[in-house]
Amino acid sequence: MPTGVLLRAADGEPARAAAPGGDAGATGDSAKGKHDMGEHQANRTASDTGCGAEASDSGRGTAADSGHRAAAVKADKAVKAGKYARVERERRFLLDRLPAPGAVTVARRITDRYVEGTRLRLRRVERLDTGECTYKLTQKVPVPPGEPGAVQGLITNLYLSEQEYARLRAALPGPELTKTRLSVPPLGVDVFEGPLLGLVLAEAEFETAEDAETFVPPPGCVAELTDDRHFTGGRLVRTGREELRDGLAGYGVALP
User: Fold this and answer.
1) 20 vs 39: CA distance, rounded Å
2) Tens digit of pLDDT for each residue in 181-201?
3) Residue closest to 105 by CA, chosen among 129, 76, 83, 140
């Protein structure tokens, strides 16, 4: 396995692959926690440091307040520069079968709402073995159409409480997509429901272009879909049964 391949954590966040001989599932979850904490801290920095500006407005500035204000200005500049967005670099594959149960380390049920007229996605993730839920609001800025390669664009995540998620879900309209994501290191395998029943996709994320280019597709891979935008979440959420049937026929796959 290339060292730069990332385990596709089931809520859509990457986690570094396990060291040889280690427990891939445990290592992936541990790395995911560190990644999530760092990204969560980065995405919340601008709002958290706003207290310095409040103190200044009320005339109660202190040395600590000055530090907060400086941090707030720095964070604001970083946000404007897109510093907290990360490059999403992944390859997608069409599979002809589900992974063996023994290969699955974690299973999660994912519900995505694609907010109408925006590049925003509201996500709820439930871990099936514990019932633990995670909520987040994601912005995806895709690469221009027609550009090949593993780079999908820029992605920024904001983690939410259950109450925040509920309020946003009630206020933001858009179609929803439900799937079960199976963590099968170094892949995340998505098993779809509803009109997309029978579609099984695998994704792998990478740190560098070289890692992406040298990655060997998994067994059972029928075709690579990295450059086929019809199989991205934003398109699949609006794909009907017949459209899916026609799209898979082009790869020699028939729906059950």
Assistant:
1) 26
2) 999 999 999 999 999 999 999
3) 129
